[in-house]
Amino acid sequence: MLGGGFLVDPERLALDAAFPVLFLALLAGQLGSRRAVAAALAGGGIALVLLPFTPPGVPILAAVLGRPVGLRR
Predict the structure, then answer these.
(1) Residue 41 located in a structural domain
(2) pLDDT at position 35, please?
């Protein structure tokens, strides 16, 4: 990777936390209604529950199951 040798330890710069924070900042602009907030909380709850029991990536994919909460009328 060009220029990769100039970076110090990414954990020291907290780059490992930068992407989740960026994602949350993008998500905040999409939460315009109570249903959207409920769907986001449901998806986040599903991901947090599955996190210790499933392989990496599965909790994020399963968080989509929170979407129907935002679609109910």
Answers:
(1) yes
(2) 86
